[in-house]
Specification:
Elements: E1 3-8, H1 13-17, H2 21-29, E2 32-37, H3 40-46, H4 57-74, H5 90-104, H6 111-123, H7 132-141, H8 153-170, E3 177-180, E4 185-188, H9 193-203
Parallel strand pairs: 1-2
Antiparallel strand pairs: 1-3, 3-4
Helix pairs in contact: 2-9, 5-6, 5-8, 6-7
Length: 204
Amino acid sequence: MANIDYYLGTISPFCYLAGTRLERIAEKHGATVTYKPLDLLQLFDRTGGVRPAERHPSRLQYRAQELPRWAEHLNMPFHFKPAHWPVNMAPSSYAIIAAQQASASGGGGDLGGLVHGFTRAVWAEERDISEDAVIRDILVAHRFDAGLADSGLFVGAETYGRNLEQAVEAGAFGAPFYVVPETGQRFWGQDRLDFLDRHLATAG
């Protein structure tokens, strides 16, 4: 059974646009997904990227066209300038880490939906995912215990930092970034999910 390491940032618009297509692809091929939320801005710093606020105007102008274009293509609601962006990614990332641990021990809900729920909250619903009440609400909406927002904060912080190191080691430099460790194949961007789908079909 293949595993997919999914490196993500909870405030990434491209992670939002990925929707839940990864989960459908994984289910189709009997693959598992390991969610690895990380500090995306630090990943840019570590791998030669440029933070959005520091990018050349030409890149920002293209981004302003590309994001709404993809949202329309995918028929997904989207606010190019959401009310709460950027915000601290750590609290929502800790919640995902705690939810993944809960799922591993039989106490989980819809983990893929939870990940998408945080990104959707930013880009479609204009909610502040750094707020405790919002995190709890999204956890409950995806059948997780709201208490996961508080539990395991130390482990969450430790894993969050480790995910960044693992991303750098795996060759990831943006998000969404999908890695199949068994084959070493890497896929950057929600627009590469079809290639991941094809790879899993032939790798088995």
